[in-house]
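Reminder to self: tokens first, then the designed residues, so the page reads top to bottom the way the pipeline ran.
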């Protein structure tokens, strides 16, 4: 991507997602993901209606006036974005590619995290870990992440979660919030997901295009598997062909949902043609 075009896209995504984060999203994020506990912050004078259980009796005795202990939440978290950069992300028929939607969601989560003083790290994956950006704070770091998302070229086109999930389990020592962004068009990954979700708080975001779920009646079409580059012709006219495809899609979707449910992982499903903020907020409210 040309530098000028990259800067324009980066700026556009920053304006849109940062605005959404500041206006509607950061508070829901804060409520859904809490810190490790509370710690003592300061003392202040007792006011009528305060909980007497928090009175600091030592300070009260010293000044002959009631003082209260004030606590604050230990909020700082580490957030890891695991982002699928395999070939199947380069598909979209309505509004934008799946990879574009994942980029915007990742940017929104990133700005929400830094608004809450959390660290953000990123793992780009295909069927392997393509790149790891260690967790850091700050706007400069977030803009680097978004720039990488816009311009990153993976070595592999296929997708699988075994190695990436093992990496996040073993390489990220501190318990973290792990957002897993993918279309999940890949082999079974239940075992490594169970292990990863036992160590980290894993949240899955499935991005799909509606034409993947509903094959249109448009006669013969040539399709290409973006991950294997295999091409073939399909006749979409017969109802039986569309019905078989619909059955496969529903079965595949059901297997994905069952996998996340059995592993105790929350899931949001987002179409490339819809607003992604509402499904994410609904996901956070369920937590």
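Designed residues (287 positions):
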């Amino acid at each position: 991507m040309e530098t000028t075009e990259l800067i324009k896209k980066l700026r556009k995504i920053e304006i849109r997602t940062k605005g959404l984060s500041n206006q509607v999203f950061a508070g829901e994020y804060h409520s859904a993901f809490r810190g490790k506990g509370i710690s003592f912050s300061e003392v202040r004078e007792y006011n009528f209606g305060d909980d007497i259980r928090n009175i600091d009796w030592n300070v009260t005795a010293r000044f002959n006036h009631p003082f209260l202990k004030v606590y604050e939440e230990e909020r700082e978290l580490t957030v890891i974005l695991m982002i699928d950069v395999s070939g199947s992300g380069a598909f979209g028929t309505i509004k934008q590619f799946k990879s574009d939607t994942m980029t915007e969601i990742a940017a929104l989560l990133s700005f929400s995290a830094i608004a809450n003083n959390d660290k953000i790290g990123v793992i780009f994956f295909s069927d392997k870990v393509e790149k790891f950006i260690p967790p850091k704070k700050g706007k400069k770091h977030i803009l680097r992440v978004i720039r990488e998302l816009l311009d990153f070229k993976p070595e592999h086109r296929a997708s699988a979660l075994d190695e990436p999930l093992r990496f996040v389990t073993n390489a990220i020592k501190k318990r973290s919030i792990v957002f897993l962004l993918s279309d999940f068009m890949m082999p079974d990954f239940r075992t490594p997901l169970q292990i990863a979700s036992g160590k980290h708080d894993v949240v899955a975001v499935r991005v799909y295009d509606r034409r993947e779920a509903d094959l249109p009646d448009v006669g013969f079409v040539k399709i290409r598997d973006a991950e294997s580059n295999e091409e073939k012709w399909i006749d979409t006219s017969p109802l039986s062909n569309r019905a078989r495809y619909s059955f496969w899609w529903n079965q595949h979707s059901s297997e994905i949902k069952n996998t996340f449910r059995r592993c105790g992982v929350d899931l949001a499903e987002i179409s490339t043609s819809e607003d992604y903020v509402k499904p994410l907020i609904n996901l956070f409210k369920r937590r």
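The longest helix spans residues 3-32.
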